[in-house]
């Protein structure tokens, strides 16, 4: 799962749902706002808010009119008894302009959500007068200036989102007054200065803390290590220095050694990632006290010592990344066989020897092409590619940061005792920051035959370059042909070979082993070859824009599998009659 975003989104949805439920019921049953001074104040504040916005698509101009009661305006919710504005929510609506200080007069406001609305200018100090405010989301705009110290007055505030703006200056120490805070996201701004020592002394409910991608300096406050509800901590890409408090190592830009003690106090921690830093020392034993840990990412540091066998006790782990460290030479502990949920493991360049204990069935490469390869039926192949797609979906859409594998191929897919496929070897994997269309430059290319055209020729990697590799692998699994097979010369490659046979002649490119397999009769497979090969062709399209997203690949494969199993069951019932 994507612990940072999932935690934040779930919390926001719960909060907004309760607001919508109460306020919507009030709006539908009320006779309309009374002409009290409070209602007039709210109306004046909304009109002042509207007046400072250019509203380029005339959304407010066409809806916020004198002929409609303001409690029925788009994005406005009111309380039942007093007919006062309790929520102003216009996420994604192109407003464009500056926030009016008059918003501070909406004294009953509990939700202010103006994310991705084209706002500029500063955050008004008057926001600090909204004492009932529980959610403040101004993220994904172009707001500048500092974070108002008055926000510290909002003692009921549970969610503070100011991410992806142009805010500068320090994080105000006054924010320590946010005693109800559960989530704070300030990533991708230009904040400077140190993190106030007492900032989190009074926030016992904090579960999500993201202040990455700023220019913060100085030490990490020790109080962060006492946030017992903390599930997500992101401090990446800052200029933080000094001693590292125990248990505070998630994605910071710090360097130095791990503390020798074991006084971890983050019992519900689920993500622990310090990848691509300069940490030394051993893998901290204190992590053994984090039973809910799901992601352990410590690759590309200079960690030393033995590979810890106690990792085998963290049975919720689904991802381990330790590649590129200086661990002691020796075998990988057999205790890892206890980690039945593990789907991603990265141990390249770690001086470790032997096989991964819970991967006794070898690789997909051997399964497809070795002389003693086992018989793989249609459903088995479908399940293998579904396992791989789900692992890649996790990397692309659910991991704390988007991870590009950059070298997806059959030799990097390993099998456990139950023949469940696991994606391995992230030696050239890269982190991706940005939206779904973002790309990065990668200096280390993948494997010939599996590389997307834009990756092989230009070194540009994206989610869609991994999808291309997956598509080629899907075609390989069902044809039995490597993309580097000697038959593919000149303009002919595995994709064009399959495309020439699609859809009427697919039986001619199908792996001969499948045709001979008694468990996969041609009659059962016939209606499902087309969607499988069509999926492979879509994923391996030359243009990245034409390729599917990995989450859509998972949905498609699950549907094919469900329909295929239903077809087999129907055929079996008919044969018995």
Your description of this structure?
- This protein has 11 helices and 29 strands.
- The protein folds into 3 domains: 47-217, Ribonuclease Inhibitor (Leucine-rich repeat, LRR (right-handed beta-alpha superhelix), Alpha-Beta Horseshoe), CATH 3.80.10.10; 264-355, Ribonuclease Inhibitor (Leucine-rich repeat, LRR (right-handed beta-alpha superhelix)), CATH 3.80.10; 362-575, Transferase(Phosphotransferase) domain 1 (Transferase(Phosphotransferase), domain 1).
- It is of the alpha/beta class and 577 residues long.
- The two termini are 46 Å apart.
- Residues 1-36, 246-264, 431-436 and 438-443 have low confidence and may be disordered.
- The chain has helices at residues 3-29, 37-51, 59-63, 364-369, 378-398, 453-458, 463-479, 494-501, 512-516, 522-539, 550-576, and strands at residues 76-78, 85-89, 97-98, 111-113, 119-120, 135-137, 144-145, 159-161, 166-169, 183-185, 190-194, 208-210, 215-218, 232-234, 239-240, 255-257, 271-273, 278-280, 295-297, 319-321, 330-331, 344-346, 352-353, 402-404, 413-415, 421-424, 430-432, 440-441, 460-461.
- The relative contact order is 0.06.
- The strands form 8 sheets. An 8-stranded mixed β-sheet has the order 1-2-4-6-8-10-12-14, with helices on one face.
- The radius of gyration is 28 Å and the shape is globular.
- Strand 1 (76-78) and strand 2 form a beta hairpin.
- It is 27% helix and 15% strand.
- This is non-specific serine/threonine protein kinase.
């Amino acid at each position: 799962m994507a612990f940072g975003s999932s935690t934040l989104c779930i919390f926001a949805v719960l909060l907004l749902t309760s607001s919508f439920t109460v306020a919507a019921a009030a709006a539908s049953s009320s006779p309309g706002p009374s002409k009290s001074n409070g209602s007039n104040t709210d109306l004046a504040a909304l009109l002042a808010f509207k007046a400072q916005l250019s509203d380029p698509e005339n959304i407010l101009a066409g809806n916020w009119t004198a002929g409609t009661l303001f409690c029925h305006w788009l994005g406005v919710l009111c309380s039942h008894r007093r007919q006062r504005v309790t929520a102003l929510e216009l996420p994604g609506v192109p407003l464009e302009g500056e926030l009016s200080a008059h918003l501070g007069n909406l004294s009953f406001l509990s939700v202010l959500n103006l994310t991705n609305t084209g706002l500029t200018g500063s955050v008004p100090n008057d926001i600090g007068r909204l004492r009932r405010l529980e959610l403040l989301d101004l993220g994904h705009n172009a707001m500048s200036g500092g974070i108002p110290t008055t926000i510290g007055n909002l003692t009921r505030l549970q969610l503070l989102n100011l991410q992806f703006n142009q805010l500068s200056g320090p994080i105000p120490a006054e924010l320590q007054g946010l005693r109800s805070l559960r989530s704070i996201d300030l990533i991708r701004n230009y904040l400077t200065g140190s993190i106030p020592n007492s900032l989190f002394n009074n926030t016992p409910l904090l579960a999500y803390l993201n202040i990455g991608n700023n220019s913060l300096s100085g030490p990490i406050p020790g109080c962060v290590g006492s946030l017992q509800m903390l599930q997500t901590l992101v401090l990446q890409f800052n200029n933080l220095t000094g001693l590292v408090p125990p248990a505070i190592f998630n994605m910071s830009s710090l360097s130095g050694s791990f503390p020798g003690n074991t006084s971890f106090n983050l019992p519900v921690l689920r993500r622990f990632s310090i990848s691509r830093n300069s940490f030394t020392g051993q893998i901290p034993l204190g992590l053994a006290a984090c039973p809910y840990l799901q992601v352990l990412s410590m690759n590309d540091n200079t960690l030393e010592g033995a590979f810890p066998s106690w990792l085998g006790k963290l049975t919720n782990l689904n991802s381990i990344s330790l590649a590129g460290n200086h661990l002691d030479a020796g075998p990988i502990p057999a205790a890892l066989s206890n980690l039945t949920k593990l789907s991603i493991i990265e141990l390249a360049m770690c001086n470790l020897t032997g096989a991964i204990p819970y991967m006794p069935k070898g690789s997909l490469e051997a399964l497809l092409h070795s002389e003693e390869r086992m018989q793989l039926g249609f459903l088995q192949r479908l399940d293998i590619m579904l396992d791989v797609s789900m692992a890649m979906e996790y990397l692309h859409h659910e991991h704390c940061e988007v991870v590009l594998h950059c070298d997806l191929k059959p030799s990097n897919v390993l099998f456990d005792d139950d023949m469940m496929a696991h994606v391995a070897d992230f030696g050239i994997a890269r982190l991706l920051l940005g939206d779904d269309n973002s790309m990065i430059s990668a200096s280390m290319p993948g494997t010939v035959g599996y590389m997307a055209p834009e990756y092989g020729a230009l070194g540009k990697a994206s989610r869609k370059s991994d999808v291309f590799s997956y598509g080629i692998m899907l075609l390989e699994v069902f044809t039995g042909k490597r993309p580097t097979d000697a038959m593919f010369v000149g303009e002919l490659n595995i994709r064009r070979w399959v495309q020439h046979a699609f859809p009427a002649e697919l039986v001619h490119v199908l792996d001969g082993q499948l045709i001979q397999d008694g468990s996969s009769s041609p009659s059962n497979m016939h209606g499902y070859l087309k969607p499988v090969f069509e999926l492979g062709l879509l994923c391996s399209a030359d243009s990245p824009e034409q390729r599917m997203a990995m989450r859509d690949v998972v949905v498609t494969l699950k549907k094919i599998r469900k329909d295929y199993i239903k077809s087999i069951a129907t055929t079996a019932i008919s044969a018995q009659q």
